[in-house]
Amino acid sequence: MPLAPLTSDKLYHIAALNGLSDACKSTKHLTPLDEIVGQERAQHAVEFAMSIKEKGYNIYAIGRNGLGKRTMVMRYLNRHEPNGNSHTLYDWCYVSNFDDTRCPKVLKLPAGEGCSFKKDIENLMKRLVKAFPLAFDNELYYSRAEKLKSELTTKQESTLKSLTKSAEERGISVSITTQGDYQLVAMNGKEPHSEDSFAALSADDQQVFENTITALEVELRGIVRKLTEWEEQYSDKQQKLDENIAKEVVGHCIKELQLKYKKIADVKAYLADMYADILDNIDVFLEENEEQVALAYASLDKKMPRRYQVNVLVHQSDTRKFPVEVEESPSYHSIFGYVENATYKGTVFTDFSLIRAGSIHRANGGVLMMDAVKVLERPYVWDGLKRALRAQKLNLSSLEREVTLSGTISLEPEAIPLNVKIILFGDYQTYQLLQHYDPEFKELFRVTADFEDDMPRNDTSEEQYARFIASIVHDNDMLHCDRKAIARIIEYSSRQADDQNKLSLHSADIANLLRETNYVARASNATMIRCSHVEQAMLNQELRVSRLKDHVMQSFVTGTTLLDVHSHAVGQVNALSVIATSDYQFGAPSRITATTAYGNGEVFDIERSAELGGNIHSKGVMILSAYLASVFGKTAKIPLTTHLTFEQSYGGVDGDSASMAEVCAIVSAFSGLPLRQDIAITGSMNQFGEAQPIGGVNQKIEGFFDVCGIKGRTAGQGVIIPESNVHNLMLRKDIVEAVEKGEFTIWAISHVSQAIEIFTGNAVGVEAEQGFYPSNTVFGLVQSKLNALRR
């Protein structure tokens, strides 16, 4: 019984939109979908990871670009605010460590209070800058300071006066300079002794003077020590006076802040340290040393002492909003932050106020999303990320120091506790590489969100897809799509999925098509997107990328590529193949020929011998060789050597989708029966001759149909495909119409013997018990010819 060809209803799955009510005339009447359609598995994985607070439950989102991975995660986070589920947010500030300025301290404040605290400290500094000079520039301070100074002066003068009087009584004059030098001179009455008058004295008198001077020198040195001690005591008293005044000023100004922040332990401790430090650095506020003060005030923003600034690293502007950061350029500095340098009067310096936050600081308490490949491409980023996740804290270290191992002085800020979920977006290859080469990856990214490429197609999913289309229309402020346009886009999605019963989940493709369709509709001054606009947008898309297809088809027009689509030929068959570029693929038929010569049954693959055939193609040839041997060589070797090749193929050939075509060509060469050239075939096979599915079936059929149009169309032309590929058919409208009119035929076969029967018009034959085939069948004819050669 001859095999019935496929009817036109099997070639295309029309979107009836039974899931939509009859009242729904366009996307205007549809509720936009607030989630990514068909990604329930990935969404459950994200929900699970976000619910687990333990270390290591970060997410690796797997899938090709355009599946809406990031959009799905963002929409989930916007709908399900985890902030109410024990997620406490904080502001993080860096302040000076007054004991060690190289190690700034970190302050943890309730969310939203960081900038308020910074402003409070700035106001405090403004008050102190004004209050200190006033406190030290008034009559009360001057009188108290003058009193201390006069007490010291009185004591010093009294002591020196007493020494001078005692020396005069012993005939010695004492003079002391302001530099602390002193001179003791023997007196001759009221005048100092000259050298001559002193020499005229007796030796005893001279000795008396010398002994007296020596004794006075000893006494004077003791007095000098006392003077020094009194100076120190005066300095201490003066400092004590200054401190008491400073304490009164600072205590009065800071008291309000201490009350305001008494419940925040970190801030309370910092204010106490700052209080003590201000007392030790009053000169900064009094501007006693201009150079020192200038450097102390050198700032990139406000005029206040740098050591008392507050560097708000992270400020939660909305305390109710869950922080979500998307890092588009994940370099080491952009993620982990860095320390800037400032220049003042030729001096380069840095301090805690120049620490800058990275995206992981801003995402602390929330989620940080990055592209996995970009993370791995940038030096030191992956190691830094793992280090932070392992330790659950952020150490801001200089990348330059890690790279150069130099001893340059740098800051070592206190670490910030880290509570963040990292979501990496990547493909399967990157995921497998990380799994294989990095043992820590499994521990730090325990949740895999695997995004689907397609979803089952039914009335419910079509309704969801229509709402998904509506959401794109609403989000991008497009013209609304009518019912037929919605149906055509769903059919396009099925074609993209290469399956009548599935819908593609590559939302980027659908969004791009809608944008271009919207452009076409607006250009034609339409008020709504209609099916014709969708068709035109698809034609425009194809036109932009189909230059290579036009070039290949032109070779059939000019006859450069030889192909017969009308007659019969022995050992010659038209096979179907797909040519692909980076963004487009199309079908083009090619001729396969087989010739035989007396030999030992070997199938000689010319493509493989010329190093143009790939491994999969070679495997296909071996499989068909095994099938032929099982059919014709059970009792004796096949006495023929077959040479098999793709004609006019000058590039590489790979894949096994030509296996059945090659078998048909070889059987024709063995039997001498001609094959129909108006039929092309595609499909692989196993060792038992069973047809196996192949890819690109739509493009292959369309390619042969186009060539038939070029060469001249006849009613008998058609294509043979594996039965298992029928569900992949979403053919062009013109091909469906041609099949419906009987102008083109598509057969779906389950075994290569059915293809041989279609090509030759003869029965293949059923093997008898003795291993023989009836003589009036194709295999019977082959068997008789082979047996004749064997004899």
From TrEMBL:
GO terms for molecular function: ATP binding; ATP-dependent peptidase activity; serine-type endopeptidase activity. Gene3D superfamilies: 1.10.8.60, 3.30.230.10, P-loop containing nucleotide triphosphate hydrolases. It holds the Pfam family LonB_AAA-LID. Its EC number is 3.4.21.53. InterPro entries: AAA_32 (IPR041699), Lon-like_helical (IPR046844), Lon_proteolytic (IPR008269), Lon_Prtase (IPR027065), LonB_AAA-LID (IPR046843), P-loop_NTPase (IPR027417), Ribosomal_Su5_D2-typ_SF (IPR020568), Ribsml_uS5_D2-typ_fold_subgr (IPR014721). GO terms for biological process: protein catabolic process; proteolysis. Residues 213-247 form a coiled coil. The keyword Cell membrane does not apply. It catalyses: Hydrolysis of proteins in presence of ATP. Keywords: Coiled coil, Hydrolase, Protease, Serine protease. Residues 567-762 form the Lon proteolytic domain. The active site is at S657, K700. Belongs to the peptidase S16 family. PANTHER family: ATP DEPENDENT LON PROTEASE FAMILY MEMBER. This is endopeptidase La. It comes from Photobacterium carnosum. The lineage of its organism: Bacteria, Pseudomonadati, Pseudomonadota, Gammaproteobacteria, Vibrionales.
